[in-house]
Amino acid sequence: MKNISTLVGKELQLYFISPIAYVVAMVFLAISDFLFYNQIQYFSGLSMRMMQFQNDLPELNLHDAVFQPTLLNMGVILLLIVPLLTMRLFAEEKKEHTSELLMTSPITITEIVFGKFIAVMFVYLLLLILSLHVPLMLSVAVDVSWKPLFASYFGLFLMGGVFLSFGLFASALTENQMIAAVISFGILIGLWMVGTSVHAAGESAFRVVVNYLSISSHLSQFVKGLISSRSITYFVSMSALGLFLTHRVVESQRWK
Amino acid sequence: MISVEGLGKRYGDVIAIDDVNFSVGKGEVLAFLGPNGAGKTTTMRILTCFMPASSGTASIAGYDIFEAPMEVKRRIGYLPETPPLYQEMTVTEYLIFVAKIKGLSQSNRKKGLIGALEKTGLSDVSKRLIGNLSKGYRQRVGLAQALIHNPEVLILDEPTVGLDPRQIIEIRELIKGLALEHTIILSTHILPEATEVAQKIVIINRGRIVAVDSQEHLSSQVRKSEKMSLRVRSHHPDISGKIKSITGVLRVTPQADSNDLGLGFIVESNLGDDIRDKVAKVVVEAGWGLLEMKPLKLSLEDVFLKLTTEETLETIPHTEQVAL
Predict the structure, then answer these.
(1) Helix (H, G, I), strand (E, B), or coil: what is residue B187?
(2) Is B83's Cβ below 8 Å from some Cβ in A?
(3) What is the pLDDT of residues B172-228, one digit of tens each?
(4) Measured between CA atoms, how close is B157 to chain A, in angstroms?
(5) Is residue B284 assigned to a domain?
């Protein structure tokens, strides 16, 4: 446990010494704020028009109209940004030969993998927390329903575990950071889009499986405000799979 | 302290090292000598538990490298060929991180840090970023990293490679100083370095050990006879024959550098047979004018070349046989 916290500290230090964490945070916030802004504009225009009909139309729901689509899009932005956070984690250690230091020190590979994962989870969590400034600002003017919003962010957090663990896996495969980033894009976009093939698959067991594998279908549940154990299981077990594969790859490289 | 038995490593079909055996006693310095690609780094990586061996075993400080790798790792300091440095950290930050993952307690960390900085002469640059240091200083940071936890065994892979001559001397002095408290294995392909620093030398070529011994023993092992050089003022034609007739002399070869100042000879005798006084007597009694007489010892360089080329020569007839 002490070793893990040492390794987490070192990784966080390297993230915040270099510009990478700041640049990623800035780009992410700029894009997500832009998405929020667009959606809020659209929502306020819609509300204006709705007010002209003075009948019993159901009240517009801020969460459904603003947060749900924006947070789903934020998932896509995170998918594009996360590989940039994870790509250096193992690739750079190998390139700079610092892996020789880690592997000949009295720490286990499990500790190394968890140290890196927890550190990058911190950075990811920080991105999510920073993006909360939009709902906080909105809450001054309107009633924000916090419970579905909490469910959405919880979903994004769990999804991050999958993104980051597979990013870590990709980084462990190579000593070239670009290749690591491209591989993790490939894996994550694949997992995200596998849901779209559901329509082609027809009614079958295959469809059920493919639908379950899709990150986007699980995220859309959370973003609706639905916390299902089925989706939690999916995210947690996929993260565990990513970490397990990472461990295997790092271990296997000793044998080459 | 360190014992290695039948260590082997293959990469697919390529045999990197084969049947490597040696042992190092407490406080000894052992140098691994060999041309590039001989298997020095592979052996060191196995000893540091960085990679497993394909066959054989080794133990360090009584712990087997396969059964108790954590105990072994706690007791070794390793400087790889490329020092494993985080460019973005300062020297102190980096060394504190290393001390932590080596499992030092908070109070020992401070002590280790100060000791390592002092021993490697890094105190002045301790606040600087590693990325901004020169190569010589980076090598020292690498050494400081290896000895911060005061390990019983130091394993140094080509510690002086790529340094300027002044830095090489400094690092060698440093290693000699460390030898008082630590058992050291170092690898090098520079011969004088091995003779200067180490008591025990392992010559490795193509993954096999060709010789293990102290420097003096190695020289005598390769010598098949005692040789000495003789120089006399006289140009008398009988000199060669007269010396040859002395009991114990095997061969007398005239030297090419004979000139007006005198004649040079190489006189060979049986191993362990000291014939210097007999030869001197003959020369002096004949009045030839003895100018110089000194025993010839093979330098380690000769030993090294001899051992590594003999190995190659052995393999040539072998391949011819296969071709037939």
Answers:
(1) strand
(2) yes
(3) 888 888 888 889 999 987 777 787 888 888 888 888 888 777 766 666 656 667 778
(4) 12
(5) yes
Cross-chain Cβ contact A106/B102 below 8 Å? yes
Cβ count near B210 (within 10 Å): 19
Q: Which residues of A touch B145 (CB under 8 A)?
A: 101
The length of chain B, given as a count of residues: 324
pLDDT tens digits along A95-139: 999 999 999 999 999 999 999 999 999 999 999 999 999 999 988
- Residue B73 in any domain: the answer is yes
CB B307 within 8 A of CB B222: yes
Domain that residue B241 falls in: 224-296
Rounded CA-CA distance B86/A12 in Å is 13
Q: Is A103 within 8 Å of B50 when comparing Cβ atoms?
A: yes
B182 and B79 within one domain: yes
Contact B50 A17 (CB under 8 A): no
- A-chain CB neighbours of B88 within 8 Å are 14, 17-18
The reply to whether B25 and B142 lie within a common domain is yes
Convert the pLDDT of each residue in B219-231 to its tens digit: 665 666 777 888 8
Residue ending a domain, among B220, B246, B279, is B220
Residue A4: what residue type?
A: I
CB A175 within 8 A of CB A94: yes
Give me the sign of the Cα torsion angle A210, A212, A215, A218. positive
Q: Are residues B149 and B252 in the same domain?
A: no
Residue B308 falls within a domain, yes or no?
no
Chain A contact for B215, CB < 8 A?
no
Burial letters B312-324, b for 16+ CB under 10 A, else e? eeeeeeeeeeeee
Contact call for residues B288 and B236 (beta carbons, < 8 A): yes
B301 is a domain residue: no
Interchain pair B82, A13: CB under 8 A:
no
Q: Count residue pairs from A and B with Cβ separation < 8 A.
A: 72
Residue of B nearest to A3 (CA): B101
Of B174, B196, B220, at which residue does a domain stop?
B220
Residues B19 and B150 in one domain: yes
